[in-house]
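Internal QA ticket QA-208
Title: Verify multi-chain structure generation after dependency bump
Assignee: T.L.

Test input:
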Amino acid sequence: MRVLVTGLGTFWGSRLAQQLEERDDVEVIVGLDTREPRLPLERTEFVRADSDYSILDRIVRATAVDTILHTHLIVDSTRMSSRALHEINVIGTMNLLAAAGAGGSTVRKLVVKSSTLVYGANYRDPYFFRESMGRTQAPRTRVERSLLEAAAFVRDFAVDNPHVVVTKLRFSNVLGDAIDTPLSKALRLPVAPEIFGFDPRLQFVHEEDVTGALLFATVNDVPGVYNVAGDGTIPWSEVCAIVGRPRVPLPPLGTYWAAEPLRALRLVDLPHEVLMLLRYGRGVDNSPFKRMGFRYRHSTAGAVDAFARSLRLERTVGDKNPTYRYQRDVETFFRHSPAVVRDR
Amino acid sequence: MPDDAPSAEPVATLTTGDGPGPLLRTRPAEAGIPDADVLPTDPPGGILPLEPATPPDLTAGDAGIRTGDVDAWGRSERMRRLARALYEPIYRYWFRVDWEGLEHVPAEGGALLVANHAAAIPSDAPAIMHGIETELGRPVYGLAEYLFRAMPVIGTLWSRCGGVPAHPDNAYRLLHDDGQLVLVFPEGAKGTGKPFRDRYRLRRFGRGGFVEIAMRSGVPVVPIAVVGAEESMPILWKSRRLAGLLNIPYFPITANMLAFGPLGTVLYFPAKFRIRVLPPVHFDVPPDQDRYPRARVMEESDRIRDRIQQALYDMLRARRNVWFG
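Actual output:
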């Protein structure tokens, strides 16, 4: 198996590459990103690309990869400008799929990491979205629109390339000790924000299950669209109770502007899609992916509990994840220099 | 159209009776209909389950977690217990609810309870839910307008007390997957918003969506006739303007407001409640079909409506007094 991982600089990409490195049936791992890997990698080749992957065509041809793991869809709109986000999610996906579908392409499998953000959060929503269900309200944010556009590209690719196994995974909100999301940042504050009078049902997936699901789809053939979320739903009040945070209400009207001080003080940025989530919540049906054979290691409540545990540890010993710095010269030396003794 | 594109059609509700709604489109692809979103690839061959490095510790991991009693539908038994304790005096001494045929409510398995709907602020839903929960010890989930979910505080309380937005897929999951009792008022706001002179005359039963849900879930419909709710908060006049302004189905002036002043917006008249449960209706159709013949659905819907209407006339013939039954 020759694998190309996009978004190696994201947490997922690096973690996934680490796990792929442990597998003997994976011959080659090529990682692509604008940023350097976040974790130390043994044999993954890192290629620095433009944000829109314009050099991808050449890489796919040169490395003859058969599997593409597209983990580089940005779902956290607080990380960058909406312009940059559009460039990565929409244009990046477009170029990636163009390269993968070009004549003579060796690609036989595509796994895309998307988000349940595509369902939105609205009061007219069903309590558990099935994969075949659409949103009940048109998307209002750039991140949601870009994910929908990227999904359309993926679907077109699947139609045009019936010989390629295409898996699209929609992940619910992720919790874990290594990833920062608006919700996890909110839970790291001394008090957690809530919207007055609302106690939404939320669903979480643990970061281990995220990489597990991506790896599962890489190793097995599971074509189609699947929701990936821990079992069960949990009210936001319950999440705050498990983590041990008192809640401070934001007004139900003008919530976005009421959250502005939090934004201005750089405490936590709660964008529109997160505020809608804190208002109406979201649940998805995770049974189809389970029927395909995937086993979750954490339920929704389990993911919250694991997060609470890591938070307690963090409060006592500080950041337990040592920061890793990718140094190209050193990496190149260790991997390619004849001076390094290999195969010992 | 992008595969995740928002559905153009408005989502149906059961209470306002907008037909089968998106449930028709939500059946998974295994049913054989080409589905817009399921990628067009062959079903997978041999799957090699990827064993996690350590065995899954789902139960072990969850053992020590403090979890509340809020279920997947937002219902909290603790909250229900509190609501029942508060409502008990009203149920027993204000409305003096009498039941008939309670044995028709199944002791286990899913069933769709279908009742007539009345009073400006419906007084029938809490009475039915309270009665069945105390008598049978089974939770009842009440399907209602989405509107509740959008309201702060009220929406949360409503949800904790067993209210669920009337999405067809919610109803299907509750009935089919969870085997619960689900209460629905097919007349919806047309029933509660009707003027006093039309009391006990059933409105249209939506488009029969409730029958389709019951058929698909493979559960019986249990018709329920309620007498007394109509007189508990009768509507004398409605303001269409104010309703439009507040974006609510109707803005009523009730007899209670004239009698009690501002208190009348929430205070019911002490009408005597009689609730009759009719024998369950079983549909002789296979469950989990993508669609059911329209004519059959409408026929069953009309038949159930007619049975409730006849039961109401029968009970009203026997009623000597609005306040004492």
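Spot checks passed. Residues 294-318 of chain B form the longest helix (25 residues).
Status: verified.
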